Amino acid sequence: MARKFFVGGNWKCNGTTEEVKKIVSTLNEAEIPSEDAVEVVVSPPFVFLSLVKSLLRSDIQVAAQNCWVRKGGAFTGEVSAEMLVNLGIPWVIIGHSERRLLLNESNEFVGDKVAYALSQGIKVIACVGETLEQRESGSTLDVVAAQTKAIADKISNWDNVVLAYEPVWAIGTGKVATPAQAQEVHAELRKWLQNNVSAEVAGSVRIIYGGSVNGANCKELAGQPDLDGFLVGGASLKPEFVDIIKSATVKKSS
Q1: Per residue in 150-190, pLDDT tens?
Q2: H helices of the chain, where?
Q3: Which of 96, 105, 130, 186 is labelled catalytic?
Q4: Nearest CA to 28 among 46, 49, 54?
Q5: What whole-number distance in Å separates Cα of residue 165 and Cα of residue 208?
């Protein structure tokens, strides 16, 4: 079964009400491939989730950028999976490197978060990736395998998980993993899933790439056999996000 191309836009901690409305209107007016060819999700900050959901065209879905690891309660400043369900938000990003590094989220904590969000019926974009030091020391594959294992240890059903490989050294730096570097890690992740989860999951789970993806480099990256889409940062706030969505057609024609 062919894996449907997936493009996520992570707006991170950006935007005002007016800016958000402008981004949404650009997306609403854009000509993009049909839902048969590509699944598109945008992830605004929590405060704009309801606004974006109310204004955005129906063939683009909305994701939160994080959620709490268990049921809500006395956790000041956190947002629970149950709240996202209540707002009708179908997706959440979990384990982004910025949260792992800046907020010290461990592999185990990320695994617990993924499992809890899934248990509440929310689909998850689960992020893995190595730092520059880890890549230069040759431990990239060990690092992403350990991050993936911490998720695999907590879940049994991967149907609602998209795995995002984001080399930390390529996020927001303008440095992009070459298509060959990205393909190598994606292929190794798929092999890890085959050996440690199942051949079925390895064949069906979408592994997307994130790290300075833009309109200029997306087509070549999209052509890699084990690369099933993108998690886009800065470029998702710009009109070129539409060009990145359109790179899904590279898969259709190959």
Answers
A1: 999 999 999 999 999 999 988 878 888 899 999 999 999 99
A2: 17-29, 49-55, 81-87, 97-102, 107-119, 132-136, 140-152, 179-196, 199-204, 218-222, 241-246, 248-253
A3: 96
A4: 54
A5: 6
Give the pLDDT band of residue 254 (cuts 50, 70, 90): low
| Nearest-5° Cα angle at 164, 59 to 90 | 35
Q: How many residues does the chain have?
A: 254
Considering the candidates 105, 130, 166, 186, report the single residue annotated as catalytic: 166
CB distance 58 to 39 below 8 Å: no
- Give CA–CA dist 184/224, Å, rounded: 10
Asked about 96 being catalytic, the answer comes back as yes
Tell me how many degrees the CA angle 181-211-231 measures, rounded to the nearest 5. 110
CB-CB contact of 9 with 43 (8 Å): yes
- Amino acid identity of 153? D
The torsion angles phi and psi of 202, rounded to 5 degrees, stand at -60, -35
Which amino acid is located at 138 in the chain?
G
User: Within 13 Å of residue 18, how many CA atoms lie on the same side as its CB?
Assistant: 0
* 186 is a catalytic site residue: no
Determine the pLDDT at residue 174: 82
pTM above 0.85, yes or no: yes
Residue 93 sits at the vertex; the CA angle it makes with 91 and 99, to the nearest 5 degrees, is: 160
Q: Which residues pair with 141 in a beta bridge?
A: none
Packed helices 107-119 and 140-152: angle between N→C axes, nearest 10 degrees: 40
Q: Phi first, then psi: what are they for 48, rounded to 5°? A: -105, 0
Higher pLDDT residue, 172 or 201?
Answer: 201
